[in-house]
Prior knowledge:
The chain is an all-alpha fold and 72 residues long. It contains two helices and no strands.
Amino acid sequence: MLAIAAAVVFGIALLLDLLDTNLGAPDLFNAHTMMLIGFLLLSLYLAGVGTGRGAGGGNGGRWYRGRRPGRG
């Protein structure tokens, strides 16, 4: 989800840069600020923030659910 948000922010930053606009606030929303927000979201995604896995480790490392094969 964070990667999608980063892609949207990068797209908006690209449009701001191509259209050479500042949205009425040159110090607040310029292309460089939007790119930094995108880099922040991308780095959070790569760090594993927001993956939906709890602090307890999820399913405890078991990859197979149900009856195990070969156990009669």
